[in-house]
Amino acid sequence: MSEAQIQAFLDSKVSDCRAGYTCLKNKYDTTRSIPADAMCGAYAGGGSERASRIIYKVAQACGINPQVLLVTLQKEQGLITDSWPTSGQYRAAMGQGCPDTAACDSTYYGLFNQIQGAAWQFKRYANPPGTSKFFTWYAPGKTWNVRFHPNEACGTSPVLIENQATANLYYYTPYQPNSAAIGAGYGLGNSCSSYGNRNFYNYFVDWFGSTQRAYGPIVTGPSRDRVYLLNGGVKYPVATSTDLRALGAGLGGLQVVPATALDSLPTGRTLTRYVHDPRSGTLYLLELDGTKHRFVSSDQIALFGYAFSSYVNLEPSLIDAFPTGEDVGVFTTPSNDSGEVYYLDNGVQRYVYDTPAYAYAARGKSGYVATMDATAHSRIPRGATFFTPNTLVRGSSSGDVYLTTPTATIVHIPSFSLAAEFGATVYKVVPDATLSTSVISKSDLAPVVRCGSKDQYIAASGTLRQLSGNTGLATIGLSTAECAAFPTAGSVSAPVFVQVPGAPEIYVVTNGKLQHVRTQAQLATLNAGRPLVILGWQRATADAVGVTAPAIENGAFVQFDGTPEVYWYTEDKLRHVSDYASLVSLGGGRLPTISRLPSAFSGAYDYGDSIGGLPNVRENSFVQFTDAGEVYRFVEGELHHITDFATLLHLGEGRVPYIAALPRVAAPAFAVGSPIAARTPQPDGTFVQFAGYPEVYLVSGGKLRHVQRVETLIALGGGRVPSIRQLAPEERLGWLRGSSA
Fold first, then answer.
1. What does the alpha-carbon distance between residue 127 and residue 164 come to, in Å, rounded to a whole number?
2. Helix, strand and coil percent figures for the chain, each rounded to 5
3. pLDDT (tens digit, 9 = 90+) per residue, 581-620?
């Protein structure tokens, strides 16, 4: 049995383990390396190994039929079929070192020690060369009296020990079943019944067939150069050594039979690994590990080099000897033992470069790698090597590094930092030949990728975000299939903001360059109320894109390093403010804050006309912008529109006041408040208060006099708090103010 067949056998005996227990099919144990001796070959310890692997390796090392080990595990502790085995069962799994009349030897505790120790013991019973002739009392070819039970009173009877295998059973379990035990099948006999060798026989025959078979189904004759499979009374010549390996993995080794027996059988058609189960009509490929795999289409059969009708019908006992594996899929390996794995992709075979590449290609598919006849394999066209997509590769004799895709296309990268923005950080130097069939994209990798006809994405911090709007960044166009391996997360729209992790500066992407956003207010304005998304770029990526002059918010005042000129930014242009009075005027009556910029950026902006000769705008000044009719009064840092001529005359104390003329271009420098509404005249001596304001005023001579103290208010009210008239707040700016009371 192969390791796969052993595992399949264990799986077939227990469907589900009870919660909290580990069945033998799922059991692992720690193994150790054991040197070869007269009984067994060397065992290479593998750390933690599965039970099926331990059974297979021990059987190979010691030359013991693994079926014997499986049956012994069952007859000693019931481990093959137990769905809730205990630690005690595993501790004495084979009964090795556990005599009926004494405690178990702790040297053999544990599944691995039990299996290896029992196999070693079975070989020792034959007294192989290099050992003593110790085991002689059940020597083959003689009749020996064998007890029925550990109780001597139960007696003995003679047994012909015909061969070493039978001798081994009685050395290991030195009792024969009495008639009551045999008559009970698997059940209980009487007080003199023993069951070990009876159960061994029952399990072996029930699970693996008769112990009396003369020879197996794979045979040859003396001095014959052909090997045959005996199937339904016909001998079928085996086509190739690869076919023989697959048959042998499922049906056992080659045996030489008498020429007369071989010649007495009719000869069938040549047999390959392409076989048929007539019960179900299923066509299978027999694999080198002793499993069978269903072909899913006639095209697939032809691809493997078989004529559709060339199969052989196998009898049930033969076809059932091969556990069923996954269907034949898209992965193949040639039968020349190269170990190479290929991926069938749109009519070509793509060499799968390594295990991670295979794992990616196998997602959502059958991962079975089918062995294909080398001749048939060579007829299929070769495509580009399949690398793990979104990794970096370089030919061993080249300096160019490429980003791989799921297709034949590879993309040249301008820098490792940009590749990292796409999530590509694994880098491999590969043989030149593995890149020779790849298709190199016409464009280098760029920060923005267009996948298919319209969807575009921007790469940052190892993922791609779907991008709407134009950034001006370099863009590469790829197919949807070529983009399939890129990790994506979320979306972003222009204007796009970028920051280098650990650095304070935030940039907006403008015309394909990075422009420093200098203030939170400016960032908020550019972001226009959207949820703020800032992409992270490596420093090298940002440097490669390039930084342009910082963004300047409208109304800001700037100065370039090394020069005295001050500029005011308005209407997307810098305007030189040519004199101090104009600067104070544009600052709303005070010297504004002036930012400094590197002189290298001075040529990056558009410039408008200079501004100079502006009048000094002070509190309560009247101003008007050229080519505009509105007149404003400057109060508390804001311009307030005087809505009617009568109010203007009132505020000018009976005449039109002096109105300072400002160029229209200066308008954005001033904040605009609420208009000045016409006031409601009040008689002198009236006390007034504007809704929402605490101040109380006395009307006197048509002006408002602020009453600053409560005592003054009471005195003016004739010894009591006078009645105070409430006025609308919008009238507040339409009154002239007198001296305080």
1. 10
2. 25, 25, 45
3. 888 888 877 888 998 888 888 888 899 989 888 888 888 8
